[in-house]
Amino acid sequence: SPVSGDSIRRRFLDFYASRGHKILPSSSLAPEDPTVLLTIAGMLQFKPIFLGKVPRQVPRATTAQKCIRTNDVENVGRTARHHTFFEMLGNFSFGDYFKLEAIKWPWELSTVEFKLPVERLWISVYEEDDEAFGIWHNVVGVPKDRIKRMGEEDNFWSSGVTGPCGPCSEIYYDFTPEEGHSDADLGDDTRFIEFYNLVFMQYNRKEDGSLEPLKQKNIDTGLGLERMARILQKVSNNFETDLIYPIIEKASELANVSYHVADEDTKMKLKIIGDHIRAIVYLISDGVIPSNIGRGYVVRRLIRRAVRTGRLLGIKGDGRGNLEEVFLSAIAEKVIELSTHIDSDVKAGASRILEELRREELRFVHTLEKGEKLLEEMLADALLNAKEKGTVPCLSGEDTFLLYDTYGFPVEITKEVAEERGVGVDMAGLDIEMECQRRQSQAARNAVKLAVGNDAELTENVPDTEFLGYDTLSARAKVEA
Ligand code: ATP
Ligand code: MG
Ligand code: MG
Ligand code: MG
């Protein structure tokens, strides 16, 4: 179809190729750069060129870059537009063209190539960037009331605390133009979606926070493929595009539910599985093996989260009668099937990827089984205790936390099982334990300076605190010992 995800990628690359850009391959999700955990944007492979550390090979390039953003993990399924794994389409200039073309071409791509209605497009510019405002209004012809000046948070892009950066300008699509122009807020994500970010990369942020002009002015852009697919395919979120939906269908089949008639919570869980399995497959394909540190820990956490989410959906296995209750590989096969135009390495490495995934999932399932036994013991204790003291039976915050942290037990499941036995859960006590862990991992994060990415949830305990959970009774007890 003319608007399949694969065709959008192809047409984007061809559009820029015919404007003098060399089509270059995506770089790995695990960058060589030791200061960087994962590839979060298309610009990463060009960072040394932007900084003037290595000479450019070509003046202009275009890529479809595989990206991982762990800082968006909590957004997955909650918003209609965030993934952990996604593809960023980009056009780049290395000291060649600057603002004028970097605004005109994305506009032409959006309105002529992809035929988005002009009146549905809104623009943001950095509040001090009169030049960009002027080009959008005077050259392109966007009315002033559809160009918003925004602050540093949204419109000054940087890949990390230090490094290349600059003011940016974003293009938004308006789903409900009938709402009119007064009070329109680009941050309202039921009305608008940001799909293209144009970065005018002209500074290097130094250690002391000051900005130093780069020798040459560069252009770095990013368009979210899944977001453009969502717009062009006219579906209500990125997950329903042809890039992801077949994965969700497979998961629905195993969970014995039907996505389109499911309740919101079930849909969210299916989206989480669809998202995480993509990330897991591409990470393993790029050589990231589940472990307790760094990148490996990111994959491990994603795998556990996908397994737990599947269990909450009632998935009991891969539907092929295997005795062990593992199911991720069956869904991963769908990801591999869809990978052809994203990354040919995935199909080539399929058996290794599936094997790695299966091994890690089994390991986790065994841990969960141990947790189940422990929970039974805890419940028996709680009941006995309550009987002796004549109080209401309750599972302590400490026990609930131990199950969650060490045995990967979702609090939801603990609560459900406990309630079935007439035992309550001390949620206030659990909050204290959670807060205590948050503070510890914050301290761990502060000790590390990752130049790229704000990998809040997934990299906690990394890299100076080793994850001790699975073979010890209490991770925290050991850390404290
Ligand atoms: P948002 O404000 O929606 O979180 P962003 O401003 O963080 O997006 P950029 O850093 O500007 O995103 O990245 C460039 C483009 O990449 C975005 O305009 C969007 O199309 C896409 N993109 C960014 N993050 C994600 C994500 N988590 N999932 C899917 N696409 C994304
Ligand atoms: Mg973001
Ligand atoms: Mg944004
Ligand atoms: Mg942006």
From TrEMBL:
<feature type="domain" description="Alanyl-transfer RNA synthetases family profile">
    <location>
        <begin position="3"/>
        <end position="481"/>
    </location>
</feature>
<keyword id="KW-0496">Mitochondrion</keyword>
<keyword id="KW-0694">RNA-binding</keyword>
<keyword id="KW-0067">ATP-binding</keyword>
<dbReference type="GO" id="GO:0004813">
    <property type="term" value="F:alanine-tRNA ligase activity"/>
</dbReference>
<comment type="similarity">
    <text>Belongs to the class-II aminoacyl-tRNA synthetase family. Alax-L subfamily.</text>
</comment>
<dbReference type="GO" id="GO:0008270">
    <property type="term" value="F:zinc ion binding"/>
</dbReference>
<keyword id="KW-0436">Ligase</keyword>
<comment type="function">
    <text>Catalyzes the attachment of alanine to tRNA(Ala) in a two-step reaction: alanine is first activated by ATP to form Ala-AMP and then transferred to the acceptor end of tRNA(Ala). Also edits incorrectly charged tRNA(Ala) via its editing domain.</text>
</comment>
<dbReference type="GO" id="GO:0005829">
    <property type="term" value="C:cytosol"/>
</dbReference>
<dbReference type="GO" id="GO:0000049">
    <property type="term" value="F:tRNA binding"/>
</dbReference>
<keyword id="KW-0030">Aminoacyl-tRNA synthetase</keyword>
<dbReference type="GO" id="GO:0070143">
    <property type="term" value="P:mitochondrial alanyl-tRNA aminoacylation"/>
</dbReference>
<keyword id="KW-0820">tRNA-binding</keyword>
<keyword id="KW-0648">Protein biosynthesis</keyword>
<dbReference type="GO" id="GO:0005524">
    <property type="term" value="F:ATP binding"/>
</dbReference>
<keyword id="KW-0862">Zinc</keyword>
<protein>
    <recommendedName>
        <fullName>Alanine--tRNA ligase</fullName>
        <ecNumber>6.1.1.7</ecNumber>
    </recommendedName>
</protein>
<dbReference type="GO" id="GO:0002161">
    <property type="term" value="F:aminoacyl-tRNA deacylase activity"/>
</dbReference>
<keyword id="KW-0479">Metal-binding</keyword>
<comment type="subunit">
    <text>Monomer.</text>
</comment>
<dbReference type="GO" id="GO:0005739">
    <property type="term" value="C:mitochondrion"/>
</dbReference>
<keyword id="KW-0547">Nucleotide-binding</keyword>
<keyword id="KW-0963">Cytoplasm</keyword>
